[in-house]
């Protein structure tokens, strides 16, 4: 049973525009599977007169919440609906209606109207007014009784009139329902009238008042003392039990009895059945499913089994499935269970729904057996059983109850305990819920429940153990909203994985609270790096160069960053780097002031010195070298590279002549050669190389073979001389060849 509550008027505003002066009164309501159809009347509060009448379709939400209300409210179009009294209402669901949409049949005045969301159609039937109407379960036929006691059965398209039967009853019927799809049953207090498809009539009288409940294959009759089920005898049972029947199924049933009595008539019946044996077996099985008598079920199943022996092609699965269905039906029909289902009802209900009903009736053992017998999982049954155990309590301690529940649920492979733990918490058994969650194997279900019951530390630890970053983030955000920041940081500080993830989040989204978080964790280096990034983002060095206030903030911020880095010895380099950077910015600003057309800000120390070299600013160059403790070797390498990049070969050559190079002269040659210097320039640098072998190889590399030979001669290395001679080839002049030969002979 679902309960729906609406805190607002679900029918919308009054079409007459006088909402404050009218009230809605629900005059009729018809419930169907997915909602209700409501007939509402608007009445004037002052006069009490009816202003209008409207028809609504309310589609109910599937949520179990009491406050869920209605998911959709749609007004059905009823022009002229205000006139005439409504005598009865019935609903055709979308699955059974002709149009495939929700249709409402209204007995208005002397006729019947069919209403849907688009229009209203008045049907050509004038035998009303109709006091009761009922739709056939398949939606194809409509039964209606008028005030003269005449019962009419028509097709829902109102093209065919199938039955017109006079009940001879003067009073209005209390109920009109269908008995399956074959007949109609009307109730007057203690009397029932059943009308068949051809106008045949059967009357039943009860001592007490009864209520009719239509089923898919009949009608259930409820009284104070007994429950009867009225339904048409199936054709298969008529064939078998009709006196003198010669139908194949009747012959097979008779053959089995003769076989049990060991008479020859059994063989004669089988010969008479002939090729209709398959149909005979089907009818016996079907009849066994329909009958409620267990002994008769056995007789019919024996008959089907007897025929099965002589019919090898008959599918075994059909026989097995019917036996399973009969066994399930017999178990639920027991008086201790009290669910008298028929075969058709069981097939329409499905085993899954039957198992749920058994569980809701607290027949958990039977529900498990039916589920296992039908090949259905028993997890939902066990969960329901566990919740009932928690609800009752029975004076069992939390530990004992946890052991009992876990032992049962773990017997069902893959069963989740989280739902049971949640129910325990809802029933104010927090300790039991925490115990049960220890046995939950799915962390994605375990962690949210741990958070819900207040086990924050366990939730964080379980989320970290799972290795799921999204789950850790979810846990951290949940905890952060529930406790103070100080308490939250104390929880996170002892868990490196959680703290690193939270810091990453703060860096991207909550920069304001990032420093507070880092300060509480004692991560001074991260505070320093964050401060450094903020300073640079707020005070761009190039823009700050033109704004004294920004420049002062930039320099002071760098000094603060350097102080923060000094908290740990491992970050002494970063601290010095910040101080050096501040010093560089000051120096660059001075250079910028002296040379307004040259941009220094934003350059490194090396780039700034290169800029001074190109401008010939020797004084600034010397100052930079001194301030940043640039060694002579670093300075020479920097100047060599700068002049080579500028292709200033004359200045580079002059620099090589200034004084003895602390880096040697090979870097001059390599830098010049890399930038495409002429051979004459390269030769100048080669001649200053102290190593003869290196000189010889470099001369040979640029094609100066004579110079290479002379340098090779100084090494007294025969292999080097030979290699240079081979390198020369035919391009060397005769004098050089002779010199090489003489040198080779001299040192041979």
Question: Could you explain how this protein is built, in words?
Answer:
With 748 residues, the chain is α+β, with helices and mostly antiparallel strands. A hairpin with a 5-residue loop joins strand 2 (35-44) and strand 3. Helix 5 (294-309) runs antiparallel to helix 6 (316-333). The longest helix has 23 residues, at 572-594.
- Percent of sequence in beta strands: 15-25%
Unreliably modeled segments: 1-8, 63-69, 730-736
Q: Radius of gyration over alpha carbons?
A: 50 Å
Shape: elongated
- The largest sheet has its strands arranged as 1-2-3-4
Largest sheet: 4 strands, antiparallel
State the end-to-end CA separation.
117 Å
Helix content: 40-55%
Average of per-residue pLDDT values: 81
Number of helices: 33
The total count of strands amounts to 19
Mind sketching the topology for me?
Elements lengths: L21 E11 L2 E10 L5 E11 L9 E7 L9 E7 L10 E6 L2 E5 L4 E3 L7 E6 L5 E6 L3 E6 L5 E6 L8 E5 L3 E6 L2 E5 L5 E5 L5 E4 L4 E4 L4 E4 L4 H7 L6 H13 L4 H9 L3 H14 L3 H16 L6 H18 L9 H7 L1 H10 L3 H10 L5 H14 L5 H13 L7 H9 L3 H8 L5 H10 L3 H11 L2 H14 L2 H9 L2 H14 L1 H11 L2 H15 L2 H4 L3 H18 L6 H23 L10 H11 L2 H10 L4 H14 L3 H10 L7 H9 L4 H9 L4 H10 L3 H11 L2 H11 L5 H13 L2
Helix pairs in contact: 1-2, 2-3, 2-4, 2-5, 4-5, 4-6, 5-6, 8-9, 8-10, 10-11, 10-12, 11-13, 12-13, 14-15, 14-16, 15-16, 18-19, 19-20, 20-22, 22-23, 24-25, 24-26, 26-27, 26-28, 28-29, 30-31, 30-32, 31-32, 31-33, 32-33
């Amino acid at each position: 049973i679902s309960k729906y509550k609406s805190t607002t008027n679900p029918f919308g505003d009054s079409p007459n525009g006088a909402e404050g002066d009218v009230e809605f009164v629900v005059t009729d309501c018809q419930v169907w599977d997915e909602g209700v159809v409501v007939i509402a009347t608007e009445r004037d509060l002052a006069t009490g007169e009816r202003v209008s009448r409207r028809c609504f379709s309310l589609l109910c939400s599937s949520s179990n919440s009491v406050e869920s209300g209605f998911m959709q409210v749609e007004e059905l179009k009823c022009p002229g609906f205000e006139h005439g009294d409504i005598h009865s209402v019935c609903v055709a669901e979308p699955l059974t209606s002709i149009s495939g949409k929700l249709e409402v049949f209204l007995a208005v005045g002397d006729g019947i109207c069919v209403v849907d969301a688009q229009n209203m159609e008045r049907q050509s039937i004038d035998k009303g007014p109709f006091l009761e109407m009922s739709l056939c379960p398949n939606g194809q036929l409509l039964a209606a009784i008028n005030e003269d006691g005449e019962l009419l059965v028509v097709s829902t398209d109102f093209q065919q009139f199938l039955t017109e039967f006079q009940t001879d009853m003067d009073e209005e019927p209390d109920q009109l329902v269908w008995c399956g799809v074959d007949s109609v049953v009307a109730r007057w207090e203690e009397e029932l009238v059943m009308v068949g498809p051809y106008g045949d009539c059967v009357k039943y009288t009860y001592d007490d008042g009864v209520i009719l409940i239509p089923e898919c294959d009949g009608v259930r009759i409820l009284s104070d003392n007994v429950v009867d089920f009225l339904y048409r005898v199936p054709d298969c049972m008529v064939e078998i039990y009709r006196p003198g029947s010669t139908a194949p199924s009747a012959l097979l049933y008779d053959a089995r009895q003769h076989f049990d009595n060991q008479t020859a008539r059994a063989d004669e019946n089988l010969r008479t059945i002939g090729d209709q044996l398959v149909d005979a077996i089907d009818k016996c099985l079907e009849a066994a499913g329909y009958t409620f008598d267990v002994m008769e079920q056995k007789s019919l199943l024996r008959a089907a089994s007897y025929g099965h022996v002589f019919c090898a092609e008959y599918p075994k699965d059909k026989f097995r499935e019917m036996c399973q269905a009969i066994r399930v039906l017999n178990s639920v029909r027991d008086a201790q269970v009290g669910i008298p289902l028929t075969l058709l009802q069981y097939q329409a209900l499905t085993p899954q729904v039957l198992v749920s009903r058994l569980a809701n009736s607290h027949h958990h053992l039977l529900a498990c057996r039916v589920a296992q017998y039908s090949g259905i999982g028993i997890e939902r049954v066990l969960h329901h059983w566990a919740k009932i155990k928690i609800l009752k309590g029975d004076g069992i301690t939390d530990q004992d109850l946890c052991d009992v529940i876990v032992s049962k649920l773990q017997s069902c492979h893959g069963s989740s305990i989280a739902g049971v733990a949640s129910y325990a918490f809802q029933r104010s058994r927090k300790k039991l819920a925490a115990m049960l969650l220890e046995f939950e194997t799915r962390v994605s279900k375990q962690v949210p429940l741990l958070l819900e019951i207040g086990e924050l530390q366990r939730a964080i630890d379980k989320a970290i153990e799972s290795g799921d970053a999204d789950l850790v983030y979810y846990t951290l955000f949940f905890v952060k909203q529930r406790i103070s920041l100080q308490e939250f940081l104390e929880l996170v500080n002892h868990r490196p994985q959680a703290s690193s993830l939270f810091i990453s989040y703060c860096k991207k989204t909550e920069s304001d609270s990032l420093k507070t978080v880092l300060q509480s964790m004692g991560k001074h280096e991260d505070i320093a790096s964050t401060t450094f990034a903020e300073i640079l983002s707020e005070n761009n060095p190039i823009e700050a160069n033109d704004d004294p206030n920004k420049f002062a903030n930039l320099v002071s911020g760098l000094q603060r960053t350097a102080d923060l880095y000094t908290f740990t010895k491992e970050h002494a380099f970063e601290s010095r780097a910040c101080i050096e950077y501040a010093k560089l910015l000051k120096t660059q600003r001075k250079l910028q002031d002296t040379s307004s057309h040259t941009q220094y800000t934003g350059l490194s120390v090396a780039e700034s010195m290169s800029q001074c070299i190109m401008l010939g600013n020797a004084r600034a160059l010397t100052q930079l070298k001194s301030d940043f403790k640039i060694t002579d070797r670093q300075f020479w390498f920097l100047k060599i590279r700068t002049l080579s990049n500028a292709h200033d070969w004359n200045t580079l050559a002059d620099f090589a002549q200034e004084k003895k190079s602390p880096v040697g002269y090979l870097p001059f040659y390599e830098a010049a050669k890399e930038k495409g210097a002429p051979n004459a320039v390269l030769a100048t640098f080669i001649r200053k190389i102290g190593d003869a072998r290196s000189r010889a190889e470099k001369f040979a590399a640029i094609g100066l073979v004579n110079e290479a030979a002379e340098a090779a001669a100084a090494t007294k290395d025969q292999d080097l001389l030979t290699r240079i001679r081979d390198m020369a080839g035919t391009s060397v002049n005769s004098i050089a060849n002779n010199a090489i030969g003489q040198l080779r002979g001299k040192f041979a």
